[in-house]
Amino acid sequence: MENQEKKENSSSVRQSEREQSRRAEMSRRRRKRQLMRRVTFVVSGILFVAAVGSIIWNVAVKKDTPAFVNQGEENITVPRPDIDVQLLTVNPNSRPGIATDRIRGIVVHYTANPGSTAQQNRDYFESLKDSQETSVSSNFVIGLEGEIIQCVPTAEMAYASNNRNSDTVSIECCHPDESGKFTDATYKSLVQLVAWLSQKFGLDTDDIIRHYDVTGKDCPKYFVENVEAWEQFKKDVADYIAKYD
Question: Is 169 exposed, middle or buried (CB count within 10 Å of its CB: 0-12, 13-18, 19+)?
């Protein structure tokens, strides 16, 4: 009898230990499943936020690229000139990524660097993200052969026109010599670009200004020293727009 009782007690203990082990295993698995659900939820949330952020960023960055530039511009009759979009990397010194106010003007500049190309000027703006030697840029640069490079979206501020950075589009123009006079190809592209931008933003010739008109700086040099040439330029812009009305 005594041996039988011992066997029964031993069996009961083993069953109790197995039951405790089974419950502990079930509890461990339940905690693991809960942890995995939490991890999955957090990761899904991060991926969702990243996807939304990527979409917003791509729209903001690409709004001035060829695929986006004419969206909502069905009423523009002036043809868009050929623009090589080479947007600068967002950085504090040449493309701060700050949104502009409503565009109220177009500011014409000259590079003050005779013989330099549009690409060289654009690449200089880009280099400022590393050198941080100054803060300067432009929405567009027009080269000696009439090529147009876009550096900063028109919806973003460029560092070109001092206290008018926030409500203007800036255009830097290359020139072959110290006189600051533009080549015929540069001049032609400038007329076409300014005409297109004027219609895009609902501006008239009074809204086309020189850097000189903002700060008194001798820029663009040839148009400051030759007022008649400046007035003729604005007339040429008006005539170009009228061709497509």
Answer: buried
pTM given for the model:
0.73
Burial class of 150 by CB neighbour count within 10 A (0 to 12, 13 to 18, 19+): buried
- Residue 137: name the closest of 191, 102, 179, 98 by CA: 98
Which residue in 168, 162, 130, 147 sits closest to 86, CA to CA?
Answer: 147
pLDDT in tens, 108-157: 999 999 999 999 999 999 999 999 999 999 999 999 999 999 999 999 99
Mean pLDDT of the chain: 86
CB neighbour list of residue 95: distance below 8 Å, 6 or more residues apart: 87, 88, 89, 125, 137, 151, 152, 156, 158
Residues 108 and 208: beta-carbon distance below 8 Å? yes
Cβ pair 81, 193 in contact under 8 A: yes
Other Cβ atoms less than 10 A from the Cβ of 63: the count is: 15
Reduced to 3 states (helix: H, G, I; strand: E, B; else coil), residue 17 is helix
